[in-house]
Amino acid sequence: MNFYEYLMQISLVQFCPVLADIDLNSNRIFEYIENIQSDIIVFPELAFSGYFFTDKDELKQYSFTKDHPVLQKLQEYASKLNKIIVSGFAELDSNVVYNSAIAVFPDQSYTRIYRKTHLFYKERDVFAEGNSGFFVINYPDWDIKIGLMICYDWRFPESARTLALKGADIIICPSNLVTEIWHLVMPARSIENKVYLAVANRIGTEKRNEEELFFNGRSAVYSYNGKCIAEADIYNETVISAEIIPHETRNKHFNSINHLFNDRRPDMYY
Ligand code: ACM
Question: With pLDDT > 70 as the criterion, what percentage of the chain qualifies?
């Protein structure tokens, strides 16, 4: 294999869903998928439903069980177009709703759902705490290992560290971020773990009960050395793309002696 056979392209869709309009949002998501050539396409957190739900029963109407036709269609696109597609969605299971992200692979047997571990702000009123744990999907056909986290998971370095220790080459983070400070932190997560990090954020505002949330875009892809290799602006729905070489993250030596993981001292960390 030569260098270029390992290279793949990832696109992040900085999307603006309309709250509680599944048909509109799904159709727009499918249209993006049909028109983006990249190998990996990522949409934000809760891209099909919108974000600011304050009532559990209302949220249930806009959530999907894992065999929902919209997710089946996402799978059909991934298989037909030979793409990996990642998106946030509200997942209904056993009468509770999780803030989840699905990673859909061309070979359906690799498709997995991650349930957000750390719930942010009023999400606690409507979502159940995620119970999937952090996991890495090893997709041998493309020699790529993908870890998922969602938005506020970023505040806990344990999220990215766990994924990196489990072998992730790239951490994909569908988001609905409402602060700016994550821009300071994400490059550090990529450097300390030597992983790519892709944050697909949304734009726009949502208002419920006189409270307005502003989602501040600036979706970004960071290389494994912390360098930002693609970035969107704050206000526009847009697609950004970057090239990645997953296997380049795997040698965790950063000089002839030191190794990011082998030098850890977990017995000193309590
Ligand atoms: C967030 O977790 N949506 C900020």
Answer: 98
Closest residue by CA, ligand 1 atom 2: 152
* CATH homologous superfamily, domain 10-268: Carbon-nitrogen hydrolase (3.60.110.10)
User: What pLDDT does residue 2 have?
Assistant: 53
Ligand 1 atom closest to the Cα of residue 120 is: 2
Tell me if the pTM is above 0.85. Answer: yes
Written as one letter, the residue type at 154 is: W
Distance CA 94, CA 82 (A): 32
Q: Tell me the C-alpha distance between 237 and 215, whole Å.
A: 12
Residue nearest to ligand 1 atom 3, measured at CA: 176
Q: Is the C-beta atom of 149 inside 6 A of ligand 1?
A: no
3-state class (DSSP) for residue 228: strand
